[in-house]
């Protein structure tokens, strides 16, 4: 286990001249276009952008699930050619195996590597213990809360000692209170592991709080609109989210994203629509006025 | 456990934490003195009231059914339906007590069970893997599916003449009919289960280093198991339907043959006995499958 925890920093992600499209009846559609990003070893990098901008597409290409139309994705100089245990992934839908207990879920990657049963059991137990989840090792995922499931999901992705950790809106399905706690847990975890992380989210606060650097993407076809370093000190604490430094970063990112979100909604939204309801009630109820 | 500290604490929090108490279970659920047997029984009763009610009503309803049956047959009611020759429950019971000592009756049952066992097992052994493979490999699906769709609507009973021609012995053709009856529900449900496997779970397995074979064994198969067991349960029901029909038409032994023979020999009580035996055997075999399902899928236990 100590081998995982003290591994020398590696996991340099490089995405160059990247574009990814697919064919539709109206002809080829570009989901992501002309994108370059990189993650330095041990760096925490987030991608934010309006929904449908292709940030998950980009992440899935780094994971190896999608092949870029042009450009290449490399990790430590090696070209990404399909999914591998070197790039651990955490999904929004938790994606724990319902038929495996918490411990068996965590063991899965080690089992795939061919580790003997007793050995991987011990490793999974140790890891769950370090994450404060040992009391739940025999539970089936269905019995766990969303936050608990995602903690198991993260531990499972870390168990094989991947070079990089990819997270696709991991806290998107959680309620706001749980999300805040999970962010703190994740940043504490990262502080110890110093693993390279590529984190996709639409939550600006989350991106700033967790990251060393944030990429902001444009509306579809997605490309990088801006790259914002987050110079907040580490270790990060929830209280920092009130600091003027944080708020300034937030304001900057907010205006970048807002522009793109409106663009992403396209014809959906007119000036009139933006007002919600263009009506004066003068003390009457809505039903009376219409 | 009931140390003074805990007692004091529970006194302390009386006024201050009413709100917390309302919000959730009290943090220090201090185990008071073990509740008496009476309170435990009362609690158990409260928790299981719905279940007990269902059992009680079920028993009453069964008894009422027997009573109506008894009245209809003792008074030989004729009202569109003729109960003139229908055996009474007591007559059936009498013939039951006689039959359980009759080795011939037991042999009928054993033979029917054996046919079900062989036919159904073969259907499961062929149907489940075929469904899994069809679900995973598009080409196999494209080749097998049209044939299966053409054959599927043909009821197993319609296969009887063909089965007699196809197979050298009567026994084999009956087992074949049983096999056909259960095969399609098993295949179709397995296929359905495969089509519903969450692709995110497959991706999760892939980025934990799983290769094709492991993904099949560790993801596709267990993910399809609930539907496979639905198929097995349905298949078992259809297997009995097909078996009884086949036995009535072409059998020499078996509980279906026994029932039909009783009609020919004017032993009316045995007709009802045969029917009840078929019902009990069908129920028993589907309970076996449900039990097996719970053993194989512990994660689905509530």
UniProtKB/TrEMBL annotation, chain A:
The keyword ATP-binding applies. InterPro entries: AAA+_ATPase (IPR003593), ABC_transporter-like_ATP-bd (IPR003439), ABC_transporter-like_CS (IPR017871), ABC_transporter_ATP-bind (IPR050166), P-loop_NTPase (IPR027417). PROSITE patterns: ABC_TRANSPORTER_1, ABC_TRANSPORTER_2. Keywords: ATP-binding, Nucleotide-binding, Transport. SMART domains: AAA. GO terms for molecular function: ATP binding; ATP hydrolysis activity. Residues 13-244 form the ABC transporter domain. It holds the Pfam family ABC_tran. Involved in beta-(1-->2)glucan export. Transmembrane domains (TMD) form a pore in the inner membrane and the ATP-binding domain (NBD) is responsible for energy generation. Belongs to the ABC transporter superfamily. PANTHER family: ALIPHATIC SULFONATES IMPORT ATP-BINDING PROTEIN SSUB (PTHR42788:SF13), TAURINE IMPORT ATP-BINDING PROTEIN-RELATED (PTHR42788). This is ABC transporter ATP-binding protein.
UniProtKB/TrEMBL annotation, chain B:
Residues 109-289 form the ABC transmembrane type-1 domain. The chain crosses the membrane at residues 50-71, 77-96, 116-137, 143-167, 174-192, 228-250, 271-292. Gene3D superfamilies: MetI-like. Keywords: Cell membrane, Membrane, Transmembrane, Transmembrane helix, Transport. GO terms for biological process: alkanesulfonate transmembrane transport. It is found in: Cell membrane. It comes from the Bacteria. SUPFAM superfamilies: MetI-like. It is a multi-pass membrane protein. InterPro entries: MetI-like (IPR000515), MetI-like_sf (IPR035906). GO terms for cellular component: plasma membrane. Belongs to the binding-protein-dependent transport system permease family. Probably part of an ABC transporter complex. Probably responsible for the translocation of the substrate across the membrane. This is ABC transporter permease. The lineage of its organism: Bacteria, Pseudomonadati, Pseudomonadota, Alphaproteobacteria, Hyphomicrobiales.
């Amino acid at each position: 286990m100590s081998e995982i925890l003290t591994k020398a920093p590696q996991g340099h992600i490089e995405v160059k001249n990247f574009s990814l499209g697919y064919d539709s009846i109206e002809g080829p559609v570009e989901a992501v276009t002309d994108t370059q990003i990189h993650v330095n070893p041990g760096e925490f990098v987030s991608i934010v952008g309006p929904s449908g901008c292709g940030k998950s597409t980009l992440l899935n290409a780094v994971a190896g699930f999608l092949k870029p139309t042009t450009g290449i994705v490399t990790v430590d100089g090696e070209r990404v050619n399909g999914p591998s245990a070197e790039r651990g992934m955490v999904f929004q839908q938790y994606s724990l195996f319902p038929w495996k207990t918490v411990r068996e879920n965590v063991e899965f990657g080690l089992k795939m590597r061919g580790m003997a049963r007793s050995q991987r059991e011990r490793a999974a137990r140790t890891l769950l213990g370090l994450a404060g989840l040992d009391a739940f090792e025999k539970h089936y995922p269905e019995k766990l809360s969303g936050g608990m499931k995602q903690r198991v999901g993260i531990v499972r992705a870390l168990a094989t000692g991947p070079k990089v950790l990819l997270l696709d809106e991991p806290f998107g399905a959680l309620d706001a209170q749980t999300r805040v706690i999970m962010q703190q847990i994740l940043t504490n975890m990262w502080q110890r592991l110093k693993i390279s992380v590529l984190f996709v989210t639409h939550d600006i606060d989350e991106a700033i709080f967790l990251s060393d650097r944030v990429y902001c993407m444009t509306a579809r076809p997605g490309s990088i609109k801006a790259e914002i370093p987050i110079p907040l000190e580490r270790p990060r604490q929830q209280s920092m989210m009130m600091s003027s430094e944080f708020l300034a970063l937030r304001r900057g990112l907010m205006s970048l994203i807002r522009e793109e979100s409106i663009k992403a909604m396209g014809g959906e939204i007119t000036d009139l629509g933006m007002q919600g309801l263009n009506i004066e009630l003068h003390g009457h109820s809505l039903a009376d006025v219409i | 456990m009931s140390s003074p500290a805990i007692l004091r604490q529970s006194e302390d929090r009386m006024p201050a934490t009413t709100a917390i108490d309302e919000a959730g279970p009290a943090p220090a659920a201090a185990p008071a003195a073990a509740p008496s047997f009476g309170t435990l029984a009362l609690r158990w009763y409260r928790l299981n009231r719905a279940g007990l009610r269902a059992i009680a009503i079920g028993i009453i309803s069964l008894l009422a059914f027997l009573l109506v049956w008894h009245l209809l047959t003792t008074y030989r009611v004729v009202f569109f339906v003729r109960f003139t020759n229908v055996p009474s429950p007591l007559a059936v019971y009498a013939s039951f007590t006689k039959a359980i000592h009759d080795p011939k009756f037991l042999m009928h049952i054993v033979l029917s069970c054996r046919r079900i066992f062989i036919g159904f097992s073969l259907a499961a052994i062929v149907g489940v893997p075929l469904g899994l493979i069809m679900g995973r490999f598009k080409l196999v699906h494209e080749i097998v599916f049209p044939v299966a769709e053409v054959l599927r609507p043909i009821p197993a009973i319609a296969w009887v003449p063909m089965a007699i021609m196809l197979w050298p012995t009567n026994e084999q053709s009956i087992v074949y009919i049983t096999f056909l009856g259960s095969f399609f529900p098993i295949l179709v449900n397995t296929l359905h289960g495969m089509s519903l496997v969450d692709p995110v779970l497959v991706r999760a397995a892939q980025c934990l280093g799983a290769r094709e074979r492991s993904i099949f064994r560790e993801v596709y198969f267990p993910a399809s198991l609930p539907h496979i067991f639905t198929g097995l349960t349905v298949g078992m029901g259809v297997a009995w339907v097909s078996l009884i029909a086949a036995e009535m038409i072409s059998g020499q032994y078996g509980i279906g043959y026994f029932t039909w023979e009783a009609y020919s020999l004017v032993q009316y009580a045995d007709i009802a006995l045969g029917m009840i035996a078929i019902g009990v055997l069908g129920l028993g075999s589907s309970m076996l499958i449900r039990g097996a399902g719970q053993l194989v899928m512990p994660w689905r236990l509530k």
